[in-house]
Write a structure and sequence with these properties.
Radius of gyration: 24 Å
Number of helices: 21
Strand content: under 5%
Largest sheet: none
CATH topology: Growth Hormone, Chain: A
CATH class: Mainly Alpha
Helix content: over 70%
Low-confidence stretches: 1-50, 479-508
CATH superfamily: MFS general substrate transporter like domains
Number of domains: 1
Mean pLDDT: 79
Distance between the termini: 6 Å
Oligomer: single chain
Length: 508
């Protein structure tokens, strides 16, 4: 690599190149030297084989920003109905269950479509899925502009369904975007930022709609005008983001950003089977445990977000605007938690410990939120909601990154897609049951139902065996079946070796 590489790439790369370390043959457990067909021979062959250089691209930040903003716009469209449930009940003349359905359709659409979407991601690539997500999100937004009549509930449901399909292509991409474009010292932070876009969209969805569309029950024409401002504004922004995605988004950088990605590029494409990848994931016991525990935690968050307005209004009538602000507090605190967790993972690689601790703290936060909701002090609800959001929402990128580690070299999009499918299934069940319990009894009963399930999630998380395969590949530890030794956190010696390997041998 030298000046030719710079010219070929058009100056699109940082001056960082990592030369892959040579793997030395390892002694066998029986003390014999490695022979033909042994893991040691495979390791020696891997070290001797030519491997493309490793470098990170400057474009990665633009790709991450474009994806995060598209995810933001999609999440905003998810929550804009439920946070204005009383407004849309009055405008369309339907009951609250039909308004809740406008949020539930996101969860319902995800489950049957996730396998086709992840297959398309593997078969046609990252760029196409990003464009489909951004384009369908814009199309759904314009469809809502056609529903600005009290008799057009079905139109708004159909438009929201298009946005729900867009979500299928966007929700599972954070870990894929991070892995394909970012180096090992920044991949978890990049995943957290990608998830952050979705959280920020939810936060804006909690804050902005109650301000744009006050509940003017006595003036339907004014209500229609205000809803129109929100719908048309969303459509314009979503269209601009679709165009930006088309310009910025590329399939992948010219050079892999990590040893793990370099190894995957060396594999023959004809050796990959999507069906076998799914089978491998469901045979992976740690992943199955994570699949259930992630579904419980994230499904509980979806349920709380959907029913937050009802919970707040039950104890604090007429406080729709503050309900939105509490939701904003919950999500913004979670955004901070996500970034902190991402940075922590990049620094320590303590995936299981961090995931378990955050899960336990989420449970504690849920208990506190449940028993302080009816005290009569909104400021207390703001504080407890913020604490709950910090840990519960901060858990999302942890689950994505932990799944990638324990399932490598399976596709990041497939593992993340299955995690999200589990979250949608649990989210639907939790929202239906918690909504019924809240209506029939009280918010306390509904929240205690979630607390019990989150406790089950803690137990399942504690049972996960930490097998950090991708991390070990980046450290140069591997064998023929890509199954790394179980590592909960790298030793200081490993960290020092990794830092030495990451030093550039020559500027590009």
């Amino acid at each position: 690599m030298g000046a030719d590489a710079v010219e070929a790439e058009g100056g699109d790369w940082n001056c960082e190149e990592v030369t892959p370390p040579v793997q030395q043959p390892q002694p066998q457990p029986n003390g014999l030297a490695p022979g033909p067909g042994t893991p040691g021979e495979a390791q020696a062959m891997l070290g001797a084989a030519p491997r493309m250089p490793v470098a990170v691209s400057r474009r990665r930040l633009a790709v991450l920003a474009a994806f995060s903003l598209c995810s933001l716009a999609n999440a905003f469209q998810w929550i804009q109905y439920s946070i204005l449930s009383s407004v849309f009940v009055g405008f369309y003349g339907v009951d609250s269950a039909r308004v809740d359905a406008l949020s539930l359709v996101y969860m319902v659409a995800y489950v049957p479509l996730i396998l086709p979407a992840t297959w398309l991601l593997d078969a046609r690539g990252l760029r196409l899925c990003a464009l489909l997500g951004a384009g369908l999100n814009a199309l759904g937004a314009w469809g809502k502009c056609l529903s600005l009549r009290p008799s057009r509930y079905v139109v708004t449901l159909l438009a929201q369904s298009v946005c729900a399909v867009a979500q299928v292509f966007l929700l599972g991409l954070p870990s894929r975007v991070a892995s394909v474009w970012f180096g090992p010292r920044e991949v978890s932070t990049a995943c957290a930022v990608a998830v952050l876009g979705n959280q920020l969209g939810t936060a804006i969805g909690f804050l902005l709609p109650p301000v744009l569309v006050p509940n003017t029950v006595d003036d339907i024409d004014l209500m229609q005008h205000n809803i129109g401002i929100m719908f048309y504004g969303t459509a314009v922004v979503s269209t601009i983001l679709f165009l930006i995605t088309g310009v910025v988004f590329k399939e992948r950088p010219k050079y892999p950003p990590s040893q793990a990605q370099a190894f995957l590029r060396d594999q023959p494409p004809e050796g990959y089977s999507y069906k076998q990848s799914i089978i491998n994931l469901f045979r992976n016991v740690p992943f199955v445990l994570l699949l259930i525990s992630y579904g419980i935690m994230t499904g509980a968050f979806y349920s709380i977000s959907t029913l937050l307005n009802q919970m707040i209004i039950t104890h604090y009538p007429g406080e729709e605007v503050n309900a939105g602000r509490i939701g904003l507090t919950l999500v913004v605190a979670g955004m901070v938690g996500s970034i902190i967790c991402g940075l922590w993972l990049d620094y320590t690689k303590t995936y299981k410990q961090t995931t378990l601790i955050v899960y336990i703290l989420s449970f504690i936060g849920m208990i506190v939120f449940t028993f302080t909701l009816n005290l009569g002090y909104l400021v207390v609800v703001f504080v407890t909601g913020g604490v709950l959001g910090f840990f519960m929402t901060g858990y999302l990128p942890l689950g994505f990154e932990f799944a990638v580690e324990i399932t490598y070299p399976e596709s990041e999009g497939t593992s993340s897609g299955l995690l999200n499918a589990s979250a949608q299934i649990f989210g639907i069940l939790f929202t239906l049951v918690q909504g019924k319990l809240t209506s029939a009894y009280s918010p306390l009963t509904g929240n205690l139902f979630l607390c019990a399930w989150i406790f089950v999630g803690i137990i399942l998380t504690a049972l996960i065996k930490s097998d950090l395969r991708r991390h070990n590949i980046n450290l140069g530890i591997m064998n023929t079946d890509i199954k790394a030794v179980p590592v909960d956190s790298p030793t200081e010696h490993e960290r020092n070796n990794a830092m030495l390997r990451d030093q550039p041998e020559s500027a590009i």
